[in-house]
Amino acid sequence: MQGGFVKTINLLSCGSSYLVSSLTRVPYVPHMPSAISFELTNHCNLRCRECASGSGTMKRGRGFMDTEIYLKTVKELSSYLWFVNLYFQGEPMLHPEFFSFTGAVEGARITVSTNGHYLSPEYCEKLADSAITRLIVSLDGMDQETYSQYRTGGDLSKVLTGIRNVSEAVRKVKSGLKLEIQFLVNSYNQHQVGEVKRLASESGAGLRLKSMQVLNIDEAGKWMPGDEKFRRYRNEGESHAIKSRLPDRCLRLWYNPVVTWDGKVIPCCFDKDAEYVMGDLTRYPFREIWRGKLFHDFRKQVLTERKSIPICRNCTSGLKGVRN
Q1: What 3-state DSSP class applies to 21?
Q2: Region 235-251: what's the mean pLDDT?
Q3: Cβ contacts of 101 within 8 Å, gap of 6 or more
């Protein structure tokens, strides 16, 4: 009860301090984050075309998170966290100690996002019996040719079998795990939205139809579907730009930081290459980084000149009328 009270007060503080900061243009952060994302690894088995990890455009080194980094950080923040995400870049289930990260954080919802290639019946039973509360499986096509347009190197039949395995494991162990299918709607698969809706219904899964982010804005045109609510970018002459005014604010910086596999704290999930490192958890406690000068200065820049920050120019914060 006490833990829930502290988490709730902290969450309210996240919102109120964000509003105060947005109005005054001065960063005010008396709270700790209510959510955090951990990158278990930036290795991946696929080569997805608009993914920093899969496309090979990522400049930073590859590796696997040391469980000690995770355990130390969660211990420091467990009193405040409502949400823990065990994914960022890469495929989290490639981590050889994956289930060491899935222990319960009291009162927090744990989410894992996967490309669905490691969902054997045995693995799914362990997932269903773990403290994970939501499993997102990426499925961006309903036949192999369409699926491969984006998911280069992927095997659709393996993913579909994996989805069935998860559903069966959830029923078998009477698990509270929620399965969610994620479908990036693009020009190649937009005609299959009806099919994926039926699959989700048959699997007892939730479905998230999502607009697609591209790393190379010049390539946006070939991916954009016909339906405007799934078009994240607008035409600008021969190029494209995100359909957002990019207002000088961003809730993510008050709510949900990201920790890379090597313990670097970065401001948000749009910093794919960890260009804006706020601090190193192998050297400093999280609280010191969260309230440190680098984070303060970055928040200040977002509050005053967000458009000047490269990673912000492809961000969905402030984007309206588009599924993201």
Answers
A1: helix
A2: 91
A3: 38, 40, 65, 67, 70, 86, 92, 95
Report the alpha-carbon distance of residue 143 to residue 157 in Å, rounded.
9
201 CB-contact burial (10 Å; exposed 0-12 / middle 13-18 / buried 19+): exposed
C-alpha distances in angstroms, 263 versus 116, 196, 278? 26, 37, 11
Burial class (CB in 10 A: 0-12, 13-18, 19+), 122: exposed
CA 304, 306, 311 angle in degrees (round to 5)?
155
Give Cα separations from 81 to 5, 8, 78, 85, 290 (angstroms): 12, 9, 5, 11, 14
The pLDDT, as a whole number, for residue 2 is 58
The owner of tokens 């355990």 is 71
Is residue 5 exposed (0-12), middle (13-18) or buried (19+ Cβ within 10 Å)? exposed
Buried/exposed 173-185: b ≥16 CB within 10 Å, e otherwise: eebebbbbbbbbb
Question: Tell me, what's the pLDDT at 183?
Answer: 98
User: What's the one-letter identity of residue 12?
Assistant: L
d(CA 130, CA 86): 13
Residue 66, helix vs strand vs coil: coil
Pairing of strands 239-242, 132-138: unpaired
pLDDT tens per residue across span 272-302:
999 999 999 999 999 999 999 999 999 999 9
pLDDT tens-digit series, residues 130-181: 999 999 999 999 999 999 999 999 999 999 999 999 999 999 999 999 999 9
Cα 237 from Cα 235, distance rounded (Å)? 6
Q: Which of 93, 155, 84 is nearest to 124 (CA)?
A: 93
